[in-house]
Design brief:
mainly alpha, 3 domains, three-stranded antiparallel beta sheet, 71% helix, elongated, binds zinc ion
Length: 304
């Protein structure tokens, strides 16, 4: 159902009566209309405008906001029509009418009716009994009414109305589905955002850790370099003892296997060390032990 202004007028006049038509027309397509502006525009008393608006409000067809008038100290109400509520009200009304039509159909099918030949009245059996089957208006004898035509008309009306209600129901369902689908999608998007954010956080934490590590490493290396330098100096001083040291070291190295690969040439060891230490901190720990080794070797050499 498309809510054209004409349709809105028709639906709301059924609620307010024709008195409300100018008010309805002033509200259609607008938002937050001051009740005082409405009153002056349609030239109604403010009390009448308020009564009509409250009737619409009781049918959930309008919403209001209010603002305090700073100079006068009272609240001014601003009114807006609610299209979805108008649709719902229309739907509700149609259902009520259908209910009444069905009741009347049952009545017509089950009860007996009597009519005046002058078309003054139509009475059911009990009422006809009360008037002894005479017209209370003109006194004519009343006759049993053949309700066939009425029943047919009622049945047609009921079928039409049922179809319309069914259509409205379908529209409401599809609308609800759309709303739900939209809500689901927005929820999914929100979840995805949260997920991405948490991933970003983890990544940034990792980055920070990496940075910290990369800051620490050079310090270690510097220490290692110092050790290497001291080793170098000692090597230079004791060049004479080199050959004998070599022999002893070779034995120990092979015993440890992977500790250090090449020791025979001390100069090479000294120069290669920094790169090896970058790769593995465990190897760094072995440097002091080598130092000790060398000292031991030196002592032995001295004794000899
Ligand atoms: Zn009559």
């Amino acid at each position: 159902m498309r809510l054209t202004p004409k349709k809105i007028e028709k639906i709301l006049v059924q609620i307010l009566g024709h008195e409300g038509l100018p008010l309805i027309q002033s509200l259609i397509g607008k938002e937050n209309v001051s009740e005082f502006d409405l009153a002056t525009k349609i030239n109604y008393d403010i009390k009448v405008v308020r009564r009509l608006l409250y009737t619409l409000y009781n049918h959930n067809i309008v919403a209001f906001t209010r603002k305090k008038d700073k100079q006068k100290g009272w609240y001014i109400y601003y009114w807006t029509l609610l299209p979805e509520s108008i649709k719902f009200s229309y739907f509700k009304r149609k259902k009520e009418i259908l209910e009444r039509l069905n009741e009347r159909l049952v009545e017509e099918q089950q009860e007996l009716f009597f009519v005046c030949p002058n078309d003054c009245v139509r009475l059911n059996f009990d009422q006809s009994m009360d008037f002894e089957f005479h017209c209370p208006e003109c006194g004519e004898l009343i006759n049993q009414d053949n309700g066939k035509e009425r029943i047919e008309i009622l049945e047609i009306k009921i079928i039409e109305l049922s179809k319309e209600i069914e259509m409205l129901l379908k529209q409401r369902q599809t609308k609800r589905k759309q709303v739900k689908e939209k809500a689901r999608k927005t929820e999914e998007k929100a979840k995805e955002k949260v997920r991405k954010k948490s991933i970003k956080k983890v990544l940034s934490k990792k980055k920070v850790i990496k940075k910290m590590e990369s800051v620490k490493k050079p310090l270690k290396i510097k220490k290692e370099e110092k050790i290497v330098k001291t080793v170098k100096k000692k090597i230079v001083k004791k060049k004479v003892a080199v050959k004998k040291k070599e022999v002893i070291k070779k034995k120990k190295v092979t015993a440890r296997k992977k500790a250090t690969i090449k020791l025979p040439l001390k100069k090479e060891v000294a120069t290669k060390k920094p790169t090896k230490k970058k790769m593995n901190s465990k190897k760094v720990l072995k440097v002091p032990s080598k130092k000790k080794l060398k000292k031991k070797v030196e002592k032995k050499v001295k004794k000899n």
